[in-house]
Amino acid sequence: MKTDVCIIGAGPAGLLLGHLLKAEGVDCVVIERRSPDYVLSRIRAGVLENITVDLMERIGLDRRLKAEGLVHDGFNLADGERLIRIDIAGLTGQQVYVYGQTEVTRDLMDACEERGLETIYEVEDTALHDIESDAPYVTFDKGGQQQRIDCRIIVGCDGFHGPSRRAIPASVGKEYMLEYPFGWLGILADVPPCNHELIYANHERGFALASMRSETRSRYYVDVPLTDKADDWSDERIWDELAIRLGPDAAANITRGPSIEKSIAPLRSFVFAPMRHGSLMLCGDSAHIVPPTGAKGLNLAASDVHYAAEALTRFFKASDNDAISGYSDKALSRVWKSERFSWSLTNLMHRFPGGGDFERAMQVAELDYIANSRAAQTSIAENYVGLPV
Ligand code: APR
Ligand code: PHB
């Protein structure tokens, strides 16, 4: 098989890029290790920045998002006593959509056949070859038969555990990693949200987040020690802890119900540079991971895809051989600023094991400063809605 661009990974990054390239007449094929159902089963966050919404609009796949998504003008920080509302619409003129990121993947997936975006699922033993040449290729097994895709560019959209990043020589690549000493225990429940906007809480007992998927489906999180297992937490124990950490006002509005999903995810900050080497480009989680505080994961993948699609379209349609060379620096510039925001909000809103009274006093002081400073709130707001691409 021969194509212009071979995309490895059919998560949100891979499918978004595939649709954008297809719309521009750039020939591409997407290969995916898992089944469509498995890809859709991945638990994901629920906040979309404008860059993600804009790209879905550009490929004409924003209908359901606009029909079912909730438009939010603000979100809240809670410090155990009060809610500090960040008026993102008033401070930035922008809003965010609350819409399950899994639904973004579903919308992208459902459009592949009608749009002629070739996506090959359940491949095995994906391997990248000759990425430093102008004629790279990808091999994989499908149904016991080895297949080969010859292409001009490979784009690794294969997530943190995929092979693409690892195909870049260690002498070329540099990894930046920070692992946090806690995880997030998340539950999904078919109950109405306790608040019409998100609440991120830093209580003396720990972090909590009240989010939602719709007006009848809620998503909550508490931070837990890395040694905890989801089975250690009964639904009642989670509801009790949420009521304490989110504060009395939110607690009074919590509707309890059986969890339909319960899991613990570790938190890390990770960046791999460069995001291009030879004929290989990286997008999304293959190149970076952010802690979920601020819901930057998918939205950062979207800005990578925006830059990659722009560069690849110029390369293939305008014979601009320099377009791709600037991709890594441009993408990394926004990646690092999102990493900083996610790291900063995680440090502000979580109680770190071993953190002493001084660290706690600094968090209380920063939250008090934010509560009383338009400038501080504006800084948080412009990062939350997403910095310009
Ligand atoms: N061959 C083919 N596909 C692979 C391989 C492989 N060897 N290894 C991994 N993949 C696939 C995975 O099965 C997965 O479907 O690559 C895809 C990567 O998708 P994600 O991990 O979702 O990463 P990405 O598309 O970059 O999503 C970015 O979206 O919802 C958020 O939190 C999520 O931060 C993440 C963001
Ligand atoms: C979610 O709704 O799952 C969510 C929202 C905001 C975050 C993380 C997760 O920062």
Explain the overall architecture.
The chain has 389 residues and is an alpha+beta fold. The protein has a domain at 5-47 and 99-177 and 268-345: FAD/NAD(P)-binding domain (3-Layer(bba) Sandwich). Helix content is 36%, strand content 27%. The chain has 13 helices and 20 strands. The strands form four sheets. The protein has an eight-stranded mixed beta sheet. A hairpin with a 2-residue loop joins strand 10 (137-142) and strand 11. The longest helix has 23 residues, at 327-349. The protein is globular and about 60 Å long. Bound molecules: adenosine-5-diphosphoribose and P-hydroxybenzoic acid. Residues 45-47, 198, 209, 211, 219, 292-295 line the site of P-hydroxybenzoic acid.
Q: What is CATH's topology name of the domain at 5-47 and 99-177 and 268-345?
A: FAD/NAD(P)-binding domain
- Total beta-strand segments: 20
Mean pLDDT: 96
Main beta sheet: 8 strands, mixed
Structural class: alpha+beta
The percentage helix is 25-40%
- Could you name the ranges where pLDDT drops below 50 across 5 or more consecutive residues? none
CATH architecture of the domain at 5-47 and 99-177 and 268-345: 3-Layer(bba) Sandwich
Radius of gyration, whole Å: 21 Å
Oligomeric composition of the shown chains = single chain
